[in-house]
Amino acid sequence: MEHIKEIEWLSSNYLSENVRILDCRYKLGEPHYGKTLFQEAHIPGAVYFDLEEDLSGEIKVHGGRHPLPDIADFVQKLQNAGITNTTKVIAYDSGEGAFAARCWWMLKYLGHKKAFILNGGFEAWKNGGFEVTTQRTDYPSSEYHPVLQPDMAAAVEDVRMISDGEAEGRLIDSRVKDRYLGRFEPIDKVAGHIPGAVNYDWTEAFKNGSFPSKENHQKRWADINKDEPIIVYCGSGVTAAANILSLWTAGYKNAKLYTGSYSDWVSYEENSVETE
């Protein structure tokens, strides 16, 4: 598949000079979880990219709980990892897919053509009997020149236009159904969903830690019109990236990420929400 690499491929290429591996393991609510796992064992040559420190920016009044990082800062981190515009970058997490997908989306947003997710993540690699290490790898600094793709991202104004019926399009809520329906809300200050949004739980993009076939994703999105604008959101713009990956794989290249997502939406008092 276009955006996925299998562990068999990586096992033959992970030592290549033009391949970089980004370890994106993380656990919401436990900020040191991923770093600890990385220190205990990781794929040789991998560099750790933290959701909070590397893949997100400073939290402000608006912009959501995981706003995009400053582009210059993110580019510097890529350069520190020895990544150039032609490097094949493979992101992995523990197998859930969302954190690796956030990194993959960020790279695509910068215009990086050779960005991939490791199917099955670290667990599949380890269970396959492949080499792991505790050794950190340092790379010579590189040059990286981003070519931003602004059409990949949606702002609150874009979402309002669709929600209010002033523009055509489909809003997709990627959270679990009970949060979408407003039955409970463990993080954000208001329960519910953006008016007009439909619910597609992001966890359905992965099955038992693996990314299903292209045909599986095409069936999943069969009720969504390919020709209409699509904006995808979740709580803070992280897990929605898994649905973007699923949509793109199914051929919905016009799917955009609402980067601030629901946590940005409810930061505006004038924005309404729906519940069941």
UniProtKB/TrEMBL annotation:
UniProt name for this protein: Sulfurtransferase
Q: Which InterPro entries match?
A: Rhodanese-like_dom, Rhodanese-like_dom_sf, Thiosulphate_STrfase_CS, TST/MPST-like
Q: Which UniProt keywords apply?
A: Repeat, Transferase
SUPFAM superfamilies listed in its UniProt record: Rhodanese/Cell cycle control phosphatase
Question: Which Gene3D superfamilies does the protein's record reference?
Answer: Rhodanese-like domain (3.40.250.10)
Q: Which domain of life is it from?
A: Bacteria
Tell me the Pfam families matching this sequence: Rhodanese
Question: Start and end of every Rhodanese domain?
Answer: 15-134, 165-274
Q: Does the keyword Repeat apply?
A: yes
The reply to whether Transferase figures as a keyword in the UniProt entry is yes
Q: Which organism is it from?
A: Rossellomorea aquimaris
Give the SMART domains listed for this entry.
Answer: RHOD
Instruction: Write out the GO MF terms.
Output: thiosulfate-cyanide sulfurtransferase activity
